[in-house]
């Protein structure tokens, strides 16, 4: 079978959707621990990982860069936000308002990514007709 690369963008969008789903769970966990003493909020890094992978590519065109990505290395990474100092006496650094805004923004991102995946499949379907 010939590697045509027609699914490259769909694969990357799938990874972005996975990272967004992971981020949603992480934010929900932060909200659940809003009253847990000494809990430090967590977040997910994906966009930075993708940007770094694309920037470090030796190729010039975006199509070639996306084709050369190692999908196994492209994933969301959960990290603990220790730089966000706590203003609370119990050492917890979760701000419920910030988490709710982040959750809403992440939901919009997820919807956009899934719509992009749908559009890519629609394009493929149109080509096959």
Please tag this protein with its features.
129 residues; mainly alpha; two-stranded antiparallel sheet; 57% helix
Reconstruct the topology from this structure:
Elements: H1 8-32, E1 42-45, H2 47-55, H3 62-68, E2 77-80, H4 96-128
Helix pairs in contact: 1-4
Structural class: mainly alpha
In the predicted model, the low-confidence regions spanning at least 5 consecutive residues are none
Distance between the termini: 21 Å
Total helices: the number is 4
Oligomer: single chain
Q: Nearest-angstrom radius of gyration?
A: 18 Å
Number of domains: 1
N-to-C SSE series? HEHHEH
Overall description:
With 129 residues, the chain is mainly alpha-helical. It has one domain. It contains 4 helices and 2 strands; from the N terminus they run αβααβα. Helix 1 runs antiparallel to helix 4. The model has no long low-confidence stretch (mean pLDDT 89).
In short:
This protein is mainly α and about 130 residues long.
